[in-house]
Amino acid sequence: MRLATIDDVRAILDIYNESIPKRIATADLVPQSLAARTQWFQSHDFTTRPIVVAIRDDAVVGWGSFTNFKERSAYAPSAEISIYVADVAARQGVGRAILGDLLARAVSCRIDRILAICFSHNEPSLKLFRSRGFEQWGLLPDACELDGIRRSITILGLKR
Ligand SMILES: CC(C)(COP(=O)(O)OP(=O)(O)OC[C@H]1O[C@@H](n2cnc3c(N)ncnc32)[C@H](O)[C@@H]1OP(=O)(O)O)[C@@H](O)C(=O)NCCC(=O)NCCS
Fold first, then answer.
1. CATH assignment of the domain containing 79
2. Total tally of structural domains belonging to the chain
3. Residues 86-123: pLDDT tens digits?
């Protein structure tokens, strides 16, 4: 595990875009552009909102981030966590390693409320987060539409 650099953005984008057609991980419906991901990367102040990558054989096989839950300043202690693992590395402990790395950084990032915002049918990520103590803090029933199917959002939270 290490902090991401601007040179990792292409790999981060490729892993993210790989997840979109599966309709289980993200509410984005079409692939993101490199420009949009670069802007996302540059909007992160790594002292409080780091992006990390998991490296295997010199390649990025997964990434994770803390992102502002809301832009308004009073939300600073609360951050959204995201974790994406490349298909080639699935189910080999990479997601667990990224989660562990980010949780270890939370206190120094002055984050004490961590939110995981997942589709309610995203069983792999719900299991992963619950295994580290996340509990359900919210539910947005049928908040999204994916290919004509309404899908709910489960908000999991963890206090540090
Ligand atoms: C969720 C995700 C990050 C898990 O990463 P991973 O590296 O495959 O997971 P790990 O090998 O570290 O497994 C950790 C735990 O996650 C759960 N899990 C992972 N894949 C699973 C699957 N296909 N089915 C059920 N549980 C699964 C299990 O509890 C697993 O523990 P176990 O192996 O002891 O049973 C990965 O599937 C992914 O990138 N999904 C798409 C993006 C996404 O949905 N991110 C979450 C929203 S931010």
1. 3.40.630.30
2. 1
3. 999 999 999 999 999 999 999 999 999 999 999 999 99
**Which residues are within 8 A (CB) of 50 and not within 5 positions of it... i.e. 6 or more apart?**
3, 4, 44, 65, 66, 102, 105, 109
140 found inside a domain: no
Residue 63 is predicted with a pLDDT of: 98
Which residue range(s) make up the domain with 8?
2-114
Q: What is the pLDDT of residue 80?
A: 98
pLDDT tens-digit series, residues 39-56:
999 999 999 999 999 999
Pocket test for ligand 1, best of 91, 101, 144 (most atoms within 8 A of CB): 91
Residue 68: which of 19, 13, 121, 113 has the closest Cα? 113
Please check whether residue 110 lies inside any domain of the structure: yes
Centre of ligand 1 from the C-alpha of residue 132, in Å: 12
